[in-house]
Structures are given as C-alpha cells and as structure tokens.
Amino acid sequence: MRKWLTQPDFIVERDVARCIGCRVCVRQCANAVHSYDDEDGTILSESDACVGCHRCATLCPTGAIAVKRAPLEFRDNANWTARAIRNVYKQAEGGGVLLAAMGNDQPFPIYWDRMLLNAAQVTNPSIDPLREPMELTTHLGRTPDRVEIEPRPGGGVRLKTRLGPQLKLDIPVMFSAMSYGSISLNASIALARAARAAGTYANTGEGGLHRSIHPYADNMIVQVASGRFGVDADYLNRGAAVEIKIGQGAKPGIGGHLPGEKVDAEVSLTRMIPEGTDALSPAPHHDIYSIEDLKQLVFAIKESTRYEKPVFVKIAAVHNVAAIASGCVHAGADGVVIDGFRGGTGAAPQAIRDHVGIPIELALAAVDTRLREEGIRNHASIIVAGGFRSSADIVKAVAIGADAVYVATAALVAMGCHLCQKCHTGRCNWGIATQDPVLTKRLNPDVAIRRLTNLLRGWSHEIKEMLGGMGINAIESLRGNREHLRGLGLTSGELQALGIKHAGVGA
Amino acid sequence: MTPETTKAAYVRRGEKDMSGCAIVGVMSEAGRRFPGDIAIRAIGAMHERSNGLGGGFAAYGIYPDRSDQYAFHIMFDHPGAEEATRAYVERHCVIVQDEAIPTRALEVIGPRPILQRYFIDLRPKARERYYGLTEEDIVVRIVMHINCEIEGAFVLSSGKNMGVFKGVGYPEDIGRFFRLDEYEAYSWLAHGRFPTNTTGWWGGAHPFGLLDWAVVHNGEVSSYGINRRYLENYGYHCALHTDTEVIAYLFDLLMRQQSLPLEIAAMAMAAPFWSRIERMGEEARELARTVRIVCGGALLNGPFSIVVGHRGGMIGLNDRTKLRPMVVARHDDLFFIASEEAAVRTVCPTPDHVWHAEGGVPIVGALKEQAVA
Asked: Which residue has the higher pLDDT, A301 or B11?
C-alpha cells in the first residue's frame, strides 16, 4: 500500500517516437521527475513529484514532453472539492501547516476585470502619443498643501516652498519587495539593473543589500522589516528610499521564515546573520506596538538619513485599512504601500494566504477617499501592490487614486517563472526562487534584464495609448479621476466602495 | 418654467455638462467704459459656434454707484426659492438694494426664470461668526450654500461692480434680452454655447461667476474628476458638474486664497511639459517642478481655451497642446481675446496687432494703474 493518499497534480507524458534520449529533462528537473535507467537506456518519468513548472517541456528539443492536469477526478462535490480533500490528506499525513507560495489563487472577484476605462469621442479629441507629448513621470513623497512664494529682493518672486525628498519614476510601476534569499542573487541583480534602465525602483525586501547591488542602490528602496535583517546606517543611506514593512498582503499578521538551508555564505553576509541559521521575521516589529511607536521608527529612520530619503510604510490590505493608512500618514510616512490579498509571497500558510485580507481595488479606493476626506492625501503617496497583471490593471489603479503600482509576480513571470507556486521548496527550476548554485546559474541576468525592461516598455506604450485615448496627456490628470472608470456587473455596494458609477451611466 | 428647465432637473440629471463654444473678451486697458453692443456683435459674428442653447456675458464696471456692495445676480425657478434665499441672505447680510434685472421682451427667448439682483453688505455679526475668514471667504460660503442647499435658486454672480447675464438662447439674443447695450463696462466677456445635451436650465450657461471671477470656456476638461476632488480638499463643492465651475474655483483657490501670481497659477493649470522643465535654468526648474508636484490636481487636461475676467482685467489661457483656438488683438486701448479672428474684425476691422495665443502661456489684459474701477 502507498504511504500516502494523495495523487499527483500533473501527469507527465513522453512521446517515445519523438524522444531522442538526450536527457535534458533529466538534468533540468530539480524535482527528479525524470530519471535515466542505465541498464536498459530508457528515460522514466515519475509524475508524483511534478509541480507543473514546464521546465522540461520548454527545453525538450523535440517537443516530446507534455505536462497535463492529472485526469483522476473525484466525484463532483461543490463543498468537498478536490483541493479540500487533498488538503485533508496532506494534513492527516504531516500534521503541519500547509504551505503555499505566490499569491492567492482562489476564484475571488477580481475587480480590475469588472471595471472599464473611458475614451474621448468628438467633444474631446483623443491624443496620439506617437505624435504628441505624453507624460508618465510620477513623483513619490510628501508634498505641502500649497506652493508658497516670496518677493525676491530687487523685484519679482521666488520659490519659498522647499519640497521634501521625492522619488522620480519614468513609469508609475516599481518592482515590489523580494528579498535576496527568497529569490536568487541573479534575480535580485536583474531587478535592480532593470529598475535603473527603466527609470524606476526595485525593493530589497527583507534581504539586505548585497554588495553586488550597491552600484544600483540609487534605484533601490531598502526595506526595514520585523527581523531587521541587513539593516544598518550604511544600508539605510545607500537606498533611494526606506520602506518600513508592517504587513504583507499574502500573509497579513504573519511573520516570515527563511529556512537555514537557504542561508549560505552570501545570504548570511547580506542579512547579517550566521550561516545556516533560520532567518525568522517576527509577526509584529518588537518595537512597534502602537501607532506612536511607528512614528518613532519613522523619525528614527528620517534622522538616520538626514531627512534626505522618503520613508514609506507598507501595510497589508485589511478591513480597517483606511484608518490604518491615515494613521501611518499622521505618523510621518511619506508614502503608504498597500498590499492586497492577492499579493505574492515566497512562502505562507495556505489558510492565511487564501483567506485573510481584502482585494487591493477596494482597499485603494477606501484609502484614497479617506485621505482626501481628511485633507491629507497630498501628505503621502499611495503605492499599491498585490496581483497586478497588466498595463490595464495599472491604469485602473491610477484612476482610482494610486500614485504608483508595485509588481513582483509579473516581474518574476517576465524572467521565466511559470507560477507553479512552489517557491517555498527552494527547487525553482527557473533559477529564480532558489539558492542552489546548479539552479541559480540558469537565470542569466542580462537576458532577464532585457525581458524586464521589455515588459515595462510595452506597458509604458500601452498606458500612453490609454491615456491619450481618454484625452489626457499627463498621468496626474488620471490619478484619482474615477470619472474615467465604470463598473460592470457590480452591486451598488461594490460601486460605492470603489467610488465609481456603473457602465451606462453618463458623466 | 417647465419641469425640465429647473435647477432641480439639472442637478438631478447629475451628468457632467459638455459643450463646444465661442468665447470673446474685450476690454479697455485705460478703464474707459463702453456699451455692451461691441461684445454682442463680436460674439454674434461666431453664431455658427453656438446652437442656441446658451449664451451669456460678464460686465465689469457696470455699477459704479454701488461699487462697495457685493452685487448678487440670482435666478430663481419659483417665488418660494426667492423667499428662502432672501431669508438666508438676510441672516448674514444687509440688502441695500433689491430689484429685478431689467429685461426686454423677445420672442426668441423661451421660458425664463425670475432674475433678481441684490446689492449687499455683510453684517458685522457674520464676520464675528466666521472669525478667521476673510469677507470674501464668507461670501464664497454664502454662494455655495445657496447653490447647493436652496432648491430652485442659483447665484449667477457675486462680485463687486460687476455682473453676469446669461440664459438659454443665442448669445446675441441673450445680450439684447438683458439690454446690455444700455450698460457701460470697461471689460466684457461673452460666450456662445453648443452643449452636447439639451439642457434647458439658464444657470448652465456661461459665464460662471464667483466673487468677481467670471469664466467663459470652450472645451472639455478630461481631468475634471480629479480637479473636482482636489478642490473638495479645499472646501469647494462643485454642484453644477461643469468644467467651467472647476476652472473658476481653481482660479479662486490659487490666486485669491493662496495668493499665487498669475504666471504660477497658470503654470499649475497648464503646466510646462517635463521635457521643457528639464531644460530650464536651475531656479526656474525648481519652481516649475515644485508647482507641478504640489499642484498636480490643479492641472487642466484636455482641450480648452478660457477667458477669466476679474476686476483688474482678463486672462486668456489655452491648454498646453493648444487644442482649441484663441486669437488675441490690440487696438489703441482695446484688448481682445476671441475664438476666431472674425469676431475681432467685426467690431474692430483693422486692429494694430493680431496674434495667436501659445498653448499653456497666459495672455493678460490688465487695467492700467489708476484706471477707473
């Protein structure tokens, strides 16, 4: 009898007529699905271990491998789905917390897909971005309520207002926090260099700033999370901005855990922890138990960086997100990062990932509205994260009120990730979410940079086309301009929460 | 009034009002007052740019004997609105003079609302109650209250020594209806409207007035949604859903409340492109950058040409890519801004200078120092 009741998720089929026995699949699969039998010279495939990452099928020179969903079906049951049954099997065997990676994969409503954008017709000419200027330049940071000027000695006026530190983005998209440790150094370097090339920023996550990324530190946002890994004065001052991470959309209220096996010499040096020890990030910051404690940390960081760096606070989208975001702004944050419940992770308890938090669309609308009601919207930028897939998602987020969007999963996919959701195993066949030197060398940073910058360039063109179509030639005229959004198939409660009208309702 | 032509119907429809238009501004920079005839003929020359669903004028310097009082031009859908407004106004103000706005019976002008004007002084009590606010801030509150809270009442203008006259009809007919040939002003604004919906409410015509600001506008503001939310931060309530309303409030916010000079207010509303800012000298660059970053919500996007009147003169402004026409001319002491050159040449066949306004660069007509008003 088998020792476990679970069946494989996928079936790996080999077309023997096509297979030339080159054994690429055997060498490429870190999960050891494929094996070579020396005695009779055949290649065997053991589907049980297959995660569906497509590495073998993609690299097979003759297209002999197909990876299919396992055909073994349970009897239909709307309550006891295959997933629910399999989860019980797994826990009955292991007795532990079920782990998952990447973002929430459950079929909750995706409001981006229920919102439609506007376009200009007749009364207002649309603008062709290939002929006319089209501005995506975005600044992140605190701004005053008004511009003040003063008379210049000898006539005229001059500027009295002195703006605080601002991040300048050529496109309102940044690479979200992914730590070196959770992803490979090659992947981290590719993100940093792509951010530099595209005129935007990448985020260190709680992985410290590896010395090979120091040359790109002007395009790095350095994170201070509850484990404080890699944080010292040099780290804070090297980055373009500092982000205090309170929560993460994939696991609100939960800390982090990088297993000791992943803490090799380089990770140990960068995170400033002993080699081979687990890197445990506590659920709360042990010096933040209230909003006034957060204020102390915000200003401790501002003092350490001579008020030259914007300080962001990242929170997960939870039920009371508007009031919490407002508190963060009052505590001195120059930007609030809101991470929705579809945000990714390198590892999280599946029950948390799939059931805690709220969609970023609703959280963003609530926060933008609240900050405007309080007259403090200009005191901090709003940066949103959590499952953004396309330029259209980004444009819709800006129209609701976001200053910029963080993407992580989309960046990983651009580098080759196939969303197999097994980051926590450390056996990423694409060389992204692993520290195994055999695997990490598969990711060529030069190729990855090209793919990342291509993605941002493509999005930039698309965003400009959509803006021009609406008769807008500067992104700030779309920001918070919900007149350009209409809901489709939403209840009045949802429309109200999003602050938009239903499709078919005029201006 | 038919039910469809009331303020209530207009507000209930809740739709943003879009329109194409003809605009004219003409003033004597010497402060010489001249009859409204010139403005009527100039706007009439652009008849084709309107469709008979709205026309209006603003005139500065028309009430020299009452120049210390705020002149409230108010329209009412019914006598009840008039009573409610009068009771509310008298709580805060002394009404020094109250009269019907003189009109001339014209067949082409359809159902008309009650049109009254009041010359008012603020009561000292109102100033005590709103201590910390300027007299003008209090007047803005009074206007906002009437427009948002009193059913059937709408304030057309609320400045000193000026007034807005507007209604449903072709502008040249509206001008004759209000007997503007009998008024003398040193500065006139005129507007002919081509709305895309058949709104029949008189208050929806231009100019839009607040304090001594009057705005005539040709175009559509595609940034309306965020301009409106930006203004709400500073206590303005856009009751009318018109682009013109947000433009008037932006001028009031930036120039009156925040005391920014015109060039900087214009820089916020029709901002220079970042590519141009990068090429500026250091001090100019820092100024432009700061204005764009701080006042991003005030940027007016989409095609527009506007003329904004105030007691000291008028300002013309085009969107920064110049998607709507604007011609400027000078002749002796006269200064013109118009959608089309034909409008200028109809009343001034051989002006000294005629030129086209540049996108995003404000055009200024200003009373010479010590000139009247």
From this structure: A301
Give the one of A120, A124, A143 whose C-beta lies nearest to B294's C-beta: A143
Counting beta carbons within 10 angstroms of the beta carbon of residue B274, is it exposed (0 to 12), middle (13 to 18) or buried (19 or more)?
Answer: middle
Q: What is the pLDDT of residue B17?
A: 62
With CA atoms as reference, the chain A residue closest to B230 would be A372
B1-46 pLDDT per residue, tens: 565 677 777 766 666 666 678 999 999 999 999 999 999 999 999 9
Structural domains counted in chain B: 1
In a domain, B288, yes or no: no
CATH topology of domain A171-502: TIM Barrel (3.20.20)
The interface predicted TM-score (ipTM) is 0.91
Question: How far B323 CA lies from chain A's nearest CA (Å)?
Answer: 8
Residue B29 falls inside a structural domain: yes
Q: Which residue of B has its CA nearest to A471?
A: B302
CATH 3.30.70.20 intervals, chain A: 10-96
pLDDT band at B371 (very low <50, low <70, confident <90, very high): low
Partner-chain residue, chosen from B16, B222, B226, that has the shortest CB–CB distance to A120: B222
Residue of B6, B9, B20 whose CA lies nearest to B219: B20
- Fold adopted by A10-96: Alpha-Beta Plaits (3.30.70)
Q: Compute the nearest-CA separation of A106 from chain B (Å).
A: 34
Contacts 24+ apart (CB under 8 A), B319-324: B319/B219, B319/B270, B319/B359, B319/B360, B320/A473, B320/B270, B320/B271, B320/B272, B320/B273, B320/B359, B320/B360, B321/A127, B321/A132, B321/A133, B321/A473, B321/B359, B322/B357, B322/B358, B322/B359, B322/B360, B323/A125, B323/B219, B324/B218, B324/B219
Tell me: pLDDT of B125 over 90.
Answer: no
Residue B275 domain flag: no
CA angle A274, A279, A284 (to 5 degrees): 135
Asked if the structure places residue B271 within a domain, the reply is: no
Quickly state the pLDDT bin for A94 (edges 50, 70, 90): confident
Mean pLDDT rounded to a whole number for chain A: 95
pLDDT of residue B132: 80
Residue A380: name the closest of A303, A319, A316, A327 by CA: A327
pLDDT of residue A317: 98
**What is the rounded distance in angstroms from the CA atom of residue B123 to the CA atom of residue B129?**
10
Tell me where in chain A the CATH 3.20.20.70 domain(s) lie. Answer: 171-502
Length of chain B: 373
CB contact under 8 A, A158 and B323: no
Nearest by CB to B222, which of A147, A166, A472?
A: A472
Q: What is the maximum alpha-carbon separation in chain B?
A: 61
Residue given tokens 């309306």 in the structure block: B224
C-alpha pair distances (Å), B160 with each of A233, A505, B60, B165, B204: 60, 40, 9, 15, 22
Pairing verdict, β A65-69 and B34-35: unpaired
Q: What is the pLDDT of residue B10?
A: 72
Which structure tokens are listed for A475?
Answer: 């992104």
> Sorting pLDDT into bands at 50, 70 and 90, what band is B110?
confident
In sequence order, the 6+-apart residues with CB closer than 8 A to the CB of A162 are none
- Give A-chain residues touching B299 at CB under 8 angstroms: 474, 476-477
By annotation, the residues of B acting in catalysis are 21
Range of the domain at B98: 3-219+321-366
Looking at residue B3, its pLDDT comes to 59
Evaluated on CA atoms A477, A374, A492, A112, the torsion sign reads positive
- A260-276 tens-digit pLDDT: 888 999 999 999 999 99
Phi/psi at A301 (5° precision): -70, -40
Report residue B26: phi and psi, to 5°.
-140, 130
The answer to whether A276 and A263 are in contact (CB under 8 A) is yes
pLDDT value, residue A1: 43
Confirm if B36 and B175 have CB atoms less than 8 A apart. Answer: yes
